[in-house]
Description:
Layout: E1 9-18, E2 21-31, E3 36-40, H1 47-54, E4 62-67, E5 70-75, E6 78-79, H2 81-92, E7 94-97, H3 109-121, H4 125-138, H5 154-166, E8 172-176, H6 184-199, E9 204-207, H7 211-217, E10 220-225, E11 228-233, H8 235-240, H9 245-256
Parallel strand pairs: 3-9, 3-10, 7-8, 8-9
Antiparallel strand pairs: 1-2, 1-4, 4-5, 5-6, 10-11
Helix pairs in contact: 3-4, 3-5, 4-5, 5-6
Amino acid sequence: MHTNGNPIVRVQNLHKWFGLLHVLRGISLEVYPQEVVVIIGRSGSGKSTFLRCLNLLEEPTSGRIEIDGIVVEAANGELLPESRARARDLRLKTGMVFQDFNVFPHKTTLENVIEAPIVVKGVPKEQAVEKARELLRKVGLLDKQDVHPIRLSGGQKQRIAIARALAMEPKVMLFDEPTSALDPELIGEVLAVMKDLALEGTTMIVVTHEMGFAHEVADRVIYMEGGVLVEEGPPDQIFTCPQDPRTRQFLARIIESGRLV
């Protein structure tokens, strides 16, 4: 595990309620620079909500989030006023890749990648284009730079989404089940890009059902259930000798279904 220096992400006592539903129940987590943390668990355990709270797509009900020195705090269902002013800065520290791509259909591949740096950060177009081409080369799509997403596969769209998130030069990449909307034969090409990012030292928090990826790439695997982080450890420990019965039960079910690679 990369424990060099201070954590780049610190979450303290994070709660999220949706009406009467208590989805996140006091989560605390630290993630270090260049660490790959994979969160596993059954659907409805709060994994996606946790990621969406990290970049304030969902506002926490209470708790504290710090990413690369930017702190936001929530209490009584809303962000504190001084935290609200820092929300944009916090979002700029994170890149988010969703399960359903969210690429702009009316823009070409290249235009998708240059949009945010130009509009949000004020990067000169020429510079944005140069960086975008470099990123498209990295994800294997430079030859598709002038193509609209409608002519691309799901795997290609997801690789655009990764390049687009990277174009903002985030400190932490958040992946919310990035392969779950893909046909099985396309999953590998997206996971391969993610593996490359991990090898390059990108700090990543990944929610996924791809246990093979978790086992191979994660520094740390966390099992989440019922809005709490039940157990965490190196992949070998979690997958071969989980300590908590809830983790054991979850993994036994996955092995039964043949999904643990």
